[in-house]
Amino acid sequence: MSRRDWPAAEAAAHEKLKSWTGNGPGGVVLGMERGVPRLIAAAGRCGAGLGPLGPDSVFRWASVTKHVFATCLLESEAFGLDMPLGEALCELAAAPAAVTVGQALAMQGGLPDPRECLTLLGFGAHERTEADALYPWMASFDWLNAAPGAEVAYSNGGYRLLEMAMARRGFVFSEMVAAHAKRLGTGMRASEHWTDPVPGLVPGHVPEADGWSEGFQGMHLSAAGSLSGSAMDLACWLADLMPRAIFDRIARPLPLGSGEATGYGLGISLTRIGNMAVPGHGGAQAGYRAGFLCDPDQGISLVVLTNRDDGDATGLAAHVWAALCGVPDGALLKPAQGWAPAGLFAAAEGDLWAEVRPGSIVVRDAEETLFEGEDGWFVSNAAQSRMRLRYEDGALTGELFHRPVRLLPAKDDAAMPGLDGDWTCDGAFLQIEGRTLNWGAGPRRSAATMTPLGNGRWLFTANGRRICLQRLSDERLKLSLARARGLEYRRV
Fold first, then answer.
1. Which of 377, 409, 441 delimits the end of a domain?
2. Which of 23, 70, 342, 467 could form a disulfide with 266 if both were Cys (CB 3.0 to 4.6 A apart)?
3. Which residue from 24, 21, 16 is spatially nearest to 203, judged by alpha carbons?
4. How many Cβ atoms sit within 10 Å of the Cβ of residue 351?
5. Under a CB-based contact definition with an 8 Å cutoff, are residues 46 and 57 in contact?
6. Mean pLDDT over residues 265-281, rounded?
7. Each residue of 364-404: pLDDT tens digit?
8. CA distance 380 to 405
9. Buried b (16+ CB within 10 A) or exposed e, 401-416
10. CA 173 from chain center: how many Å?
11. Which among 24, 25, 27 has a CA at the least distance from the CA of 230?
12. 369-396: buried (b, 16+ CB within 10 Å) or exposed (e) per residue?
């Protein structure tokens, strides 16, 4: 058994947290070994006029919820992982009905993400939606982002569908969480809406030009990200979970349909730190960031929770873990520098586009940090968005999400034939005039300039997102984001 250096980990945590001192928001780092807290570091405050953050401060866990839901699903024994979703939800359209339970949990189902579908219909992040309306709307989508088992690409859609399927079998996620919380003596809980009362919840903070605003989400919360609790609550949950056989089942990566290995299991991903592949997960919601890493063999967990939108919880956890395990700086992945010229790139056809930035790449409006890999490749360190790229012969080549890609510099189309006019989708409405796209009505009407990618594709910005518009025919357009790639508008 290798030795763990808790003093070094604590020093690393305090070093990273020192910029969060003062009256602003901050975060908590908590390390636990076999049920005993070994590291507690905190900085910042709960909110204006409120006290300092600590191990018992309550945060939203965001997507850290996913592994808890996967655990509850396996405990229920309601569904086998190979069962198609259509057997549990008979009203699903044919495309999502063929996705298996395991694929839905392991980000391999290609299921559209409901939040990003709402964005493509013009819904802002603050607009409230209800579960009873969201589910039948999602069930009617007869398209997928990708063929099931073909790629690992993040989406919350599978978790929302499976939560509904569980409830129909009598297993209500919030009730299962409450039972675990009572058994463990913790305060973790599942919420339906952002406005539901949560005892002790600290406000989430979003940076603005003149200070901070309070984060908010209008969409109904689901098992993809509905939990809240303290750092101590999460550490106690992990201490109880890790010795159980069920942890190995959720942490074991699910291979693709081709048999190719991945780094993502059932709400658990593997993070490379030195020569280790460490199980854990991260999460992000408006004003909150969360992350954890763990070593089930030694009963060690490391939890990071923040109440600030710019808090890199997963990066902080990896930094502290490296110190805990004595990983030298030379063994860590080095940030990519100058690996490709900055700018927009796109595949020869389809909706795949990317923007190269210093040290990162944005793919379909989702940004991922890149690091130096082997043999001239540049890679991501996120199992749910695997990337392996290089720049050669004027193009980005390699793999995205386990699929081969070749992206060329974006080019300007001399003309935009067949786009002018009015378009509609599911009650949403947009209008195109030359290179201007108008969306919404009345005081919500906004205009965006369309940036060409080439070959009948353009980018425009709406509700803070860069959306790809692809001309399919004289009568059809497709809008897409990273997690929702198939919403079609038709000419009025």
1. 409
2. 70
3. 24
4. 20
5. yes
6. 97
7. 999 999 999 999 999 999 999 999 999 999 999 999 999 99
8. 15
9. bbeebebbebeeeeee
10. 20
11. 27
12. bbbebeeebbbbbbbbbbbbbbbeeebb
Whether residues 189 and 296 fall in one domain: yes
Q: What is the rounded distance in angstroms from the CA atom of residue 279 to the CA atom of residue 292? A: 8
Q: Give the model confidence (pLDDT) of 2-12 as tens digits.
A: 679 999 999 99
Residue 219 exposed, middle or buried by CB count within 10 Å (0-12, 13-18, 19+): buried
Q: List, in sequence order, the alpha helices (H) in 380-434.
A: none
Q: Is residue 38 exposed (0-12), middle (13-18) or buried (19+ Cβ within 10 Å)?
A: middle
The conformation of residue 334, written as its DSSP 8-state character, comes to P
100-128 pLDDT tens trace? 999 999 999 999 999 999 999 999 999 99
pTM for the full predicted model:
0.97
Which residues lie closer than 8 Å to 441 by C-beta, 6 or more apart?
429
Contact 444, 438 (CB under 8 A): no
CB-based burial label for 64 (10 Å; 0-12, 13-18, 19+):
buried
> Residue 6 corresponds to which tokens in the numbers above?
């808790």
Cβ proximity of 483 and 153 under 8 Å: yes
Under 8 Å between Cβ of 386 and 399: yes
Domain count within the chain: 3
Report residue 485: phi and psi, to 5°: -120, 20
Asked whether the predicted pLDDT for residue 1 surpasses 60, the reply is no
Q: Are 42 and 316 in contact (CB under 8 A)?
A: no
Question: Which among 374, 409, 444 is the end of a domain?
Answer: 409
Alpha carbon distance 254, 109 (integer Å): 12
Phi-psi region of 299 (alpha: psi -120 to 50; beta: other; left: phi over 0): left
CA dist 253 and 243 (Å) reads: 18
Are residues 359 and 337 in contact, defined by beta-carbon separation less than 8 angstroms? yes
Residue 399: both structure tokens together: 């793999």
Tokens representing 236 are 């106690």
Of 133, 88, 89, 134, whose CA–CA distance to 114 is shortest?
134
d(CA 326, CA 304): 19
| 44 token code pair | 């910042």
DSSP state of 52: B
Residue 148 in domain: yes
For position 482, which CATH number holds? 2.40.128
How far apart are alpha carbons 151 and 386 in whole angstroms? 9
- 336 in a structural domain: no
Distance between start and end Cα atoms, the chain: 67
| Token pair 């390699």: residue | 398
Strand residue runs (E) in 307-365: 343-346, 353-357, 360-363
Asked whether the beta carbons of 351 and 468 are under 8 A apart, the reply is: yes
